[in-house]
């Protein structure tokens, strides 16, 4: 066997994907809205163009918002005063309105961090390995610090320390950057089972049908006699060999659960149908579905439904780690399937403009965040 396997990977977005930079852009300071588009201000170029030799003017400029320095004829293609222009616009144009920034390179080109994809792969592998080993949720195995709550379970499933962690053998590169034209502005909400849309959020997102290209490497040496001789041998190499099938199984489970949740949520029919169709996507040994980035939920960042096997366990982690604002309810007598659908009690969705029965403008759920199709082709 070769020392490693190298794969060319294409990640194609199905729904909008947001991977945040950690920064919130401010209306009138970082961007302006005009004609249904979002114009990202090039503050340095805008200030350089001002006459600041006059001390009074310089003082006035220091107190001004960058948007106040723009003129009508500045809003044109190729204007040096804007870094880029995006389709769509945030709902709010008020003072202090914020737009969550998408991660980009130094040239404002969006890319997919390898750590984002690897984290999602790790979640799917952990979910699968848990079921394979028939583990049960036990409170005594939880870390009191919520940031490391599942650390003992991760050690059991992946390895006792970073040097012997299964995912050490999986190396995922950052993707090639895409053009800024693959970005747009999307508006999101939190939806509950009653169909109530709350917590408006605006963000830059990667548009659907955008294709990221990157490489993935599986280091076979870490499962060899050489690694054993150097006390570096890892366990679980067969999981990486079956990676697309395992991640695909996790995605199908995720889709079925979300379809069930949205089918019971008022106004969730469109997204329930999306999940039903997504679950029928043909995948296999080279292709799989995966959810990446913001809004993909509890299911995609923990051991998910594996933790729902015990009602008492779930109630304890909800209480101890403050994962729910509502008081714990007694689910005695309810089946695991019902509890599976009820938690968590809300989801994040992208919304669009619609009309209610009286013809009034309202927001309606349009898309679930973060879904992508991944194709892996091994280099020979």
Which features would summarize this protein structure in a list?
10 helices, globular, 380 residues
Q: Would you give an account of this structure?
A:
- The protein is an alpha+beta fold and 380 residues long.
- It has one domain (4-19, 103-378).
- The chain contains ten helices and 14 strands.
- The chain has helices spanning 43-48, 55-63, 114-133, 151-158, 225-229, 237-241, 243-263, 269-278, 311-320, 336-342, and strands spanning 4-13, 20-26, 31-34, 37-41, 82-87, 98-102, 170-172, 183-192, 197-206, 211-219, 287-291, 346-355, 361-367, 371-378.
- The strands form four sheets. It has a five-stranded antiparallel beta sheet with strand order 7-10-1-14-11.
- The two termini are 13 Å apart.
Summed up:
With 380 residues, the chain is an alpha+beta fold.
Shape type: globular
| Rg, Cα atoms, Å | 24 Å
Strand content: 25-35%
Query: From the helix content, strand content and strand pairing, which structural class follows?
Result: alpha+beta
Mean pLDDT figure? 89
Q: What level of helicity do the residues show? A: 25-40%
- Mind describing the biggest β-sheet? 5 strands, antiparallel
Topology, element by element:
Layout: E1 4-13, E2 20-26, E3 31-34, E4 37-41, H1 43-48, H2 55-63, E5 82-87, E6 98-102, H3 114-133, H4 151-158, E7 170-172, E8 183-192, E9 197-206, E10 211-219, H5 225-229, H6 237-241, H7 243-263, H8 269-278, E11 287-291, H9 311-320, H10 336-342, E12 346-355, E13 361-367, E14 371-378
Helix pairs in contact: 3-7, 7-8
